[in-house]
Task: inverse folding
């Protein structure tokens, strides 16, 4: 359940509507700025004394949208729901306006999970390009976080990385002389303490967690949200999407001061996914796959073996991405957000406390493959290398 503000001029009227979201009037598409979210297990959110969610005022459009997701598989029509949200407001302004940013994976069937898998991991990226254009110069302070998947999610974690050169230039007063630092020493990223994680995630306990120590996020930082899914009891592909039988991988972070950035999520690029389907059709014997056909149909048609599942997981985690770098009105920030390369980051550690001092350097796509395939089963590395060659060139080998 979510409450969205209609990000329009104060005088803009939005038609009143109650019904299915996919049949709503087009004007409601502007109602996309998250004000509050609730899911099973969540308690009320208490803002810190230094921040509050801005509501009202002469520049505030008075329309809101309440969106509720129901699971009604038996199509019962005689049930009445009285769910809603209650806001406590004050006329005593706090120093900072607060906001919400969505991290993780885009809601699309491009991000889908094979059946019969014990722990399939997919990562959504909020990349350095998006935080550079979307966050204020002095950054933001994150004070709360809500992790979210549907029924097959078993682990969620958001990791935080900062560029070495950003750390150096922001703290160069701590260094005796900038001349002692070589340019190559400033490449790559440093891993900072983890935002929020749940190694035993349950969709029935999606609490909004106040962080013990607020976290500073600066322009240029990278936020990786990884979700692990267990689909051993499912017989077909689990698609990314809105239905409870679909899957999501999201972290709603609450922060201040409010910025223009509303959504910072990713999915595998369309170009890479089409090349993956071409590879399956031409090189892996899956003739039923139609490279330019509907994504969900192609995923459903593949005969999923453990080898193919692991190959898809590896491909997801090294392929270029399409970014959702969106403002509060639902529009993208200006920029080239499709088929973006991803630098190399450390592997996700086993289910333990992830806050450890880990460093890594940026690398080429070849180095990324080397980093992510050093433990692959025999033959999988060669397949992944071949698939990545196809994806980079955009054509299949003769």
Result:
């Amino acid at each position: 359940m979510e409450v969205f503000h209609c990000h329009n001029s104060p005088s803009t009227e939005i038609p009143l509507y109650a019904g299915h979201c996919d049949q709503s009037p087009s004007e409601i598409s502007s109602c996309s700025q998250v004000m509050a979210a609730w899911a099973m297990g969540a308690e009320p959110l208490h803002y810190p004394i230094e921040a509050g969610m801005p509501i009202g005022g002469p520049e505030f459009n008075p329309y809101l949208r309440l969106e509720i997701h129901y699971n009604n598989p038996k199509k019962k029509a005689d049930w009445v729901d009285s769910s809603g949200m209650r806001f406590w407001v004050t006329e005593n302004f706090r120093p900072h306006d607060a906001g919400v940013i969505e991290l993780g994976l885009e809601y699309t069937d491009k991000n889908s999970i094979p059946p019969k898998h014990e722990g399939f991991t997919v990562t959504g990226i909020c990349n350095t390009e998006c935080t550079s254009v979307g966050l204020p110069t002095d950054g933001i302070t994150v004070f709360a976080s809500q992790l979210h998947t549907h029924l097959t999610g078993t682990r969620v974690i958001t990791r935080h990385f900062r560029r070495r050169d950003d750390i150096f230039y922001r703290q160069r007063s701590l260094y005796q002389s900038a001349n002692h630092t070589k340019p190559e020493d400033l490449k790559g990223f440093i891993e900072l303490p983890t935002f929020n994680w749940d190694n035993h995630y349950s969709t029935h306990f999606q609490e909004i967690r106040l962080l013990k120590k607020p976290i500073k996020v600066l322009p240029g930082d990278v936020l990786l949200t990884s979700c692990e899914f267990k689909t051993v009891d499912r017989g077909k592909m689990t698609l990314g999407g809105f239905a409870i039988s679909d899957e999501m991988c999201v972290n709603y972070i609450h922060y201040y001061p409010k910025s223009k950035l509303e959504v910072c999520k990713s999915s595998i690029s369309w170009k890479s996914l089409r090349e993956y389907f071409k590879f399956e059709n031409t090189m892996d014997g899956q003739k039923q796959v139609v490279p330019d056909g509907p994504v969900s149909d192609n995923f459903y048609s593949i005969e999923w073996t453990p080898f193919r599942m692991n190959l898809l997981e590896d491909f997801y985690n090294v392929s270029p991405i399409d970014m959702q770098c969106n403002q509060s009105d639902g529009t993208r920030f200006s920029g080239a957000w499709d088929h973006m390369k991803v630098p190399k980051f450390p592997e996700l550690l086993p289910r333990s406390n992830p806050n450890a001092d880990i460093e890594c350097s940026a690398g080429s796509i070849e180095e990324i493959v080397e980093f992510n395939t050093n433990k692959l089963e025999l033959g999988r590395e060669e397949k992944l290398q071949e698939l990545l060659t196809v994806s980079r060139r955009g054509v299949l080998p003769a």
Remarks:
- The first strand starts at residue 2 and ends at 6.
- The chain has seven helices and 16 strands.
- The first helix runs from residue 128 to 134.
